[in-house]
Amino acid sequence: MASSPKASKVKPIKEAAVLAAYVSWLDRQPLADRTRDAYRAQVNRFLEWLSTAGHGTAALVEPSVRDWAVREYKQAVKAKGW
Fold first, then answer.
1. Average pLDDT over residues 17-45
2. Could you read off the pLDDT of 34-54 as tens digits, one per residue?
3. Which of 1, 18, 47, 59 is exposed most, by the fewest CB atoms within 10 A?
């Protein structure tokens, strides 16, 4: 398998800011509270993983990096049995 594309200058993700923006958007959606809680928890778990994965903010804005990050996250989730 080819290695994932990584930015030469990786900018770290500001997890709290990204999560806050997501939660703000999520709170405006017509969803049940339990659904919002589940989505929030999943995104938080992904951001925690992403902050240690070496992709940096590119995984949030560059489609090719995002795709690699999602593939790697899915592998990590499966390996942990989540």
1. 96
2. 999 999 999 999 999 999 988
3. 1
pLDDT score for 11: 86
pLDDT(75) > 60: yes
Placement of tokens 């990096």 in the chain: 65
Report yes or no: 61 and 80 within 8 Å, Cβ to Cβ: no
One-letter amino acid for residue 26 of the chain? L
DSSP 9-76: SPPPP-HHHHHHHHHHHHHTSS--HHHHHHHHHHHHHHHHHHHHHT-TTHHHH-HHHHHHHHHHHHHH
Residue 8 DSSP class: S
Ranges of each domain in the chain: 15-80
